[in-house]
Amino acid sequence: MEELLEILKELHPEVDYETCTTLIDDKILDSFDIVSIISEVNEEYDVAIPAEEIVPENFNSAQALYALIERLMDED
Is this structure's pTM higher than 0.85? Predict the structure, then answer.
């Protein structure tokens, strides 16, 4: 989780990712941020996020994104 928080803080250091659950809903993350996150997650965790998983629910919070990463790692 720490690695994920670092990735997110590089994009928007002013956001409290520990508590924010509206990253997409409040337009904190834009499409460029999502592409960056997907690329960084792929490098850091060695998981590819499939297109069907790129939905707001999976990117609205750091917790949701980390749950997605863990689920994808378990599937490998």
Answer: yes
